[in-house]
């Protein structure tokens, strides 16, 4: 809490500005009583349990050393997971989870902070609270404290869990702090964007973009340099998390780096919040057109208008990600060709044949799983339109429910194809350029990216099903997406049983490029997706709206 | 435009039932609205007004009973009906990044279409700036966006759910003149409102509902007839003097309540349809002056609202 305290002026003013923080904090914890424990438990237990999994999979020191050496020798694998700093079991856990754990803690933190700051203002609830005995800085402070509690819990769970399963205490603590501190830094960044933007959606999007950039910088830096000394790695907070080097002569001073950056971000957010009015932002609202364009004449025009910015953001993000990953794919060929162990590991990561192909297939799969986040969000716009009372006047017009729902679904389904196509194009182009064979590589890589679409649509169909039949439980769609991400990301290296891998629609796709593709899985997934969506739409037609 | 439907009632609801879980929002509600009339729809908070309106709009599916709008089924023929209906909710939510003008046009296009000249005129009368974004409008201005869209739309039926909440008195006046114009054009208006002066000024007939049931329905005159008139009279003799018409005699008349005799002065309340006998009785004593006050609208509604207050349950819709 040093961070918060330094940002505040004289003690007398402090108590006035912070009046009501305790009450708001209790309110936030009460509202998040399901969300925060779920995040903390899943994130904490996944990391903490990884020690015993690695111990079981690589039970001799020699095996672990081979794994570490081959991973460090390969630029592509370094880009994915970062370098291995120690071939102890703890070192492998840190290698696998320091970066991704930091990423997940950052997502959790940005959701918490935006939810209790900008979202409260946007919905007008903050106005009511601020009219009571609530100081000007209390809402932001309460949101940051909520994030601090969640991140502290994550750090404690990780450190305690790993230490309990036999890993060295100092390294366990370092890994817990590396993940928790990254979470708090992004809580601070979210606190800034929440002041700058007027919509919670935009604040989340901007912070998410910063997080994506941090991850990409780390990936690019690690691809370029085996020792993690690249400046690209060092400008990325996720690079700091991995460079804390848990279980490998911990560099505790990096915690000071986190502290300084978090203090800076939090101070900036307090300075911004002191200079603006409740509900307002720094970007003044510009006047809009007095009459609507011809395109804004029906439910589809409206849905497009509401969703186009989000789609544009995702398309740009996928272009960048595809470009970066395509550029480092060539490094997979650096892999020591004769190393059976390495080959086995890469194949376990989801590849089938040819290490570069395997890498590209892994990338296409990763883009696919991330695109599922876009698709789910796009479908759930329907629900937020409904609960926000904006669907009601549209449906009170001459608009059938299917047309209304179909408009948003069309954007969700087509948008998925669009972002996967652009991601695949960038991946294929950038890989093709790096191996001087654009003509030969672009087609297969693009096809690999597009082959993910049926699996994404299956999740989309399930979301429509929830929206139609169990509208109050639509958030469960996020759990489905999270489950598929978990199965796809950590399932292969932890050797999940086949039935568990089969639960994810992505597990049924052939590993393109490189593998033999048959039509059957695509047909099945498309049929399932269509069936789910159809049943969901029947539900939409029959149920009460609102 | 309205000639085709003028024979049948514009809205006819019989024994409508709707529950949300264990809450019975509508419990056998009846409603009948003739084409071309402005109908007031009244009831305490949570009585089921908005639920009824949402059933009429086909947003909610009734559990029982029947509802017909312009001769059609509000659930099955929703799209076809909505071309001829304009709806204004009590709490208008706009898309934050769409301007008011865009929303007005969008709503109009989603209905039968928009009269451009009328749109311009209404924007002026309501003093609404159509270039502002949804997030920057105040509550009253958001309400105006929906009202302009409704009044400029080419429709047969307007469903207004507490449409003037948040409007200032000047705008309230503009609103009333707009509704009057709609009536003059032969359109039907269902007006749910708590502003009694508004109801009194605009409505041909009213329905009062309570706990999901219709408790009173008719013209204001008819409803007044069912309530009590207060009478204050100064008499030439004392009511007590001739034994035949003593205070006891007045009290014995049917429909007399709260009798208060002080010397020559008599105060009482009487059921309006029993007024005649009381006046006759007073006449035999001799009347020096007489004030008879018909029930105010407030009294009319409070009678229905008040006994509801303790049992009032918050039915969210």
TrEMBL record, chain A:
It comes from Streptomyces inhibens. Keywords: Membrane, Transmembrane, Transmembrane helix. The chain crosses the membrane at residues 34-54, 97-117, 138-163, 169-191, 203-221, 252-272, 311-333, 358-380, 410-433, 445-470, 477-499, 519-540. This is ABC transporter permease. It comes from the Bacteria.
From TrEMBL, chain B:
Residues 11-236 form the ABC transporter domain. GO terms for cellular component: plasma membrane. The keyword Oxidoreductase does not apply. One of its GO terms (biological process) is response to antibiotic. It comes from the Bacteria. It is found in: Cell membrane. GO terms for molecular function: ATP binding; ATP hydrolysis activity. SUPFAM superfamilies: P-loop containing nucleoside triphosphate hydrolases. Keywords: Antibiotic resistance, ATP-binding, Nucleotide-binding, Transport. The keyword Lipid metabolism does not apply. It is a peripheral membrane protein. It holds the Pfam family ABC_tran. InterPro entries: AAA+_ATPase (IPR003593), ABC_transporter-like_ATP-bd (IPR003439), ABC_transporter-like_CS (IPR017871), ABC_transporter_ATP-binding (IPR050763), P-loop_NTPase (IPR027417). SMART domains: AAA. PANTHER family: ABC TRANSPORTER ATP-BINDING PROTEIN (PTHR42711), ABC TRANSPORTER ATP-BINDING PROTEIN NATA (PTHR42711:SF5). Belongs to the ABC transporter superfamily. This is ABC transporter ATP-binding protein. It comes from Streptomyces inhibens.
